[in-house]
Design a protein that fits this description.
The strands form 2 sheets. Strands 2, 4, 5, 6, 9, 10 and 11 form a 7-stranded mixed sheet that branches. A 4-stranded antiparallel sheet has the order 1-3-8-7, with no helix packed on it. The chain is mostly beta strands. The longest helix has 5 residues. The mean pLDDT is about 95. The N and C termini lie far apart (about 40 Å).
């Protein structure tokens, strides 16, 4: 049984920063691609970022590119560093783990697809005040 637990959410002013963490337990962390998704009130959950099992490749939604950074350590934790936060970044943020290894020209689309992630955390709220 794989369990994911997010932490680090909170209230921040626009322009501020937060660092989210996702701790994975239960299986070999290094075998999973880690993804971050978010869901704002009244909207569908959307892809934010992903990092492959080796850490060699990262993927970002256009809306966060240049402001957010995804990373992972050699133990069992994935991180999402969020800078220059905007009110539109306010959402519940979820981390997810995938055993899928995406190849080819549409690897971004593959890693951005929620159905490719078998395990999900419970989410952490990020609130950005204007």
């Amino acid at each position: 049984q794989v369990q994911l637990v997010e932490s680090g959410g909170g209230l921040v002013q626009a322009g501020g920063s937060l660092r989210l963490s996702c701790e994975v337990s239960g299986r070999t962390f290094s075998m999973y691609t880690m993804g971050w998704f978010r869901q704002a009130p009244g909207k569908e959950r959307e892809f934010v970022a992903a990092i492959t099992w080796s850490g060699s490749s990262t993927y970002y939604a256009d809306s966060v590119k240049g402001r957010f950074t995804i990373s992972r350590d050699n133990a069992n934790t994935s991180f999402l560093e969020m800078n220059s936060l905007k009110p539109e970044d306010m959402a519940v943020y979820y981390c997810a783990a995938s055993r899928r290894y995406c190849l080819g020209s549409d690897s971004y689309g593959c890693y951005a697809t929620q159905a490719n992630y078998a395990y999900w955390g419970q989410g952490t709220q990020v609130t950005v005040s204007a």
